Amino acid sequence: MQSSTLVLVATVAIQSLVAMCLMTLPVVAPSVAQSLGISTAYLGVFIAIAYVGAMSASLMSGAVVKRFGAIRASQIGLVLCGVGIALCAIRSPAAVALGAALLGLGYGPITPASSHLLARTTPAHRMSFVFSIKQTGVPLGGVLAGAIVPSLADLAGWQAAFLVVAAANLLCALAVQPLRAGLDSDRDQAERLSFGSGLSGPVRMVFSRRSLAVLAGVSFLFSITQLSLTTYLVTFLHEDLGMGLIAAGFALAVAQTAGIGGRLLWGYVSDRFIGPVATLALLSAGIALCALLTPLLQYADSSLVILIVLSVFGGCGIGWNGVYLAEVARQAPEGQAGFATGGTLAITFLGVVLGPPLFGAVATASGSYGLAYATLIVPAAGSLGLLWTFRSAFSRS
Fold first, then answer.
1. How far apart are CA 169 and CA 80, in angstroms?
2. What CATH number corresponds to the domain at position 122?
3. What is the dihedral of CA 88, 138, 260, 25, to 10 degrees?
């Protein structure tokens, strides 16, 4: 069995590249929309299609991980993401829709697979911090997309940029192959893959335990905020604030970088000081504040003010996942972290499926992406209410 450090490095790398795939189209959405002759508001539909696939794949991932191993499940995910973003390079709405579906199917197994690996190798008292380190791969992927893809698209065209990202995912799938023998040693080839029970079993597990059900509900609300923030930020800055695409991509990279720092900070705070429930409640309050401030950025007379607000928003709106996933692993039955993670992530992804299209609809109806960001106070208040009402579900003997 490889060391816990090697496991962590491998899972961060995999998570970063699949996240970069998902963010590649959003960071150049105005260019892609113009090329395809569609509105940028349809970006929410792209995200919804991707996460319908992710939701389905996450439910099946527990059984897939158990039968084939977490590394093999991750390799499958990397390949599907690579093929998906390559399809998105075809100048056709139908090809982009199919590519989005494959992206989702590839993205879905990644987190359950990594949770399975880390739950086996991480001491309980360090889980929030270690899981938060692993989850920095998601905003790191956003940083890579925001920092690299717009410039590459400006240099060689957005289609070439998409193909470069696809190649990076395929290379990563090859690079982790030497780890498979050690890390997939617990696979059980007798495990049956049943579509019906594979979809319903993880969800039944989640709703059989109140703590897991509350975490799933909170993640549903948080995911609405996170994906609305990251999916539409470049478009908001470009269309509402008049920023160029490269400058807007840089601002997204700053917000994503703050998300990386936030995940590490909140994991440490949760483990050492106030615990996961209080940490998630604190993040809800931070998201609500930033949601109210974001529409006011159009009146900011300094780009520094804009970057500060977006950094706080990124630190809170992107920084919650590690604390949440570590608590899911703690609350799961012994040896069932992958199944519990898959079940809760299905609810998380449902928020992603519903959130961005609704956000896009609000932005279209109001004529302002800034006003749409203000409505994110609603899911923030909802998550705070859930955590307060059911706080006793997390008490331990």
1. 9
2. 1.20.1250.20
3. 10
